[in-house]
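Record 1 of the preview.
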Amino acid sequence: MADAAGRLTKLAEEVLGTPLPVRIRAWDRSESGPPGGPVLVIRHRRALRRLLFKPGELGLARGWVAGDLDIEGDLYEALDLLAGLLWERAATTKAPRAAALRALARPELRAAARELLALAGAPVPPTPPAEELRRRRGPLHTLRRDKEAISHHYDVGNDFYALVLGPSMVYSCAYWESPAASLEDAQRDKLDLICRKLALKEGQRLLDVGCGWGSMVLHAAREYGVRAVGITLSEEQATFARKRIAEAGLADRIEIRVQDYREIKDEPFDAISSIGMAEHVGRARYAEYASALYALLRPGGRLLNHQIARRPVADEETYRVDDFIDRYVFPDGELAPVGRTVAQLEEAGFEVRDVEGIREHYALTLRQWVANLEKHWDEAARLTSPGRARVWRLYMAASALSFERNRIGVNQVLAVRTPDSGASGVGLRERSWG
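->
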């Protein structure tokens, strides 16, 4: 099996129709491709079998998580080079990213297919990594299924998240004054920006939907004097948040519940924050989500919906969640274009008063999280598993590039349950947010 790297490079270029942008190092220590840049390391022939049995993103993801594939050198540069090639093909061929491998079925590439099969070895499908969530059955976004999906992502250990997120324990886009600012300062500034957009005042009642580890309700209660309710579907998050709140001496002003937004019955609230939670709601439930939050607000109350958005596609019915994200990161999560989010909030009765796009801020945030993970790699792998740590490193680095390249964005949408009088309570020049 001499010079496996050279044979793979030739095969890849034949299938892709363009020079391979990264160097390859194969399991037999052979190397091929452009020098001086990142190296795609194929540690085991099993990686090829994963691709043959699951062409495209899922096969690549399984190889990465299992450690059969790796990147030596700058991970961001490697992902950018590979993603640029794949995105370019998708844009020009209107085909999914798996098309390059599926092209092996074409008659003129049968020799290449036979060569790849010979390189892959035994034609047996490898077992997926233990970190992969098996395909689920039944209707999306039931109370039980949503709780299981949230648990898969968030109940992997508070100590692990502390390594990645830092002391703020905020798992959403920070708000940066400059790239030189600290992650802690940027997260504090984000929480304070949301409080100011909601115009929080002492004695008001705040609901934080998807409260995570309690950072938003802590900041709002401590700095603005509100009474707050935070809800999460993660038992581990709730336990951690309650401990933080007790240590801060704010247990009489903040309540943390393990509860779905559809189960809340003690309205009204003066303000609602939903920060990085709506991505879990799904298309089929979004109208219900928007209507539920509208009903929970008092007339004149404000909603701040902080949500990742994707670019629209020509036929929205063709949109599908990436296999890697669905199986390893956010099961059942779905992104929507910001225009659709605004429309559905308005359809629920809200008056949308402001939309702020902050995708560059999320790129900076993700790069900081990746740096934290890499700095504490051995401990992170011990606290979860090497495969789980690899999942987080890949998804956060790839997501940072997606925000930088405008493939996805993130927006803060401020909406008001404007009363019949039409008095929104939003000042004439309130865009500066104090």
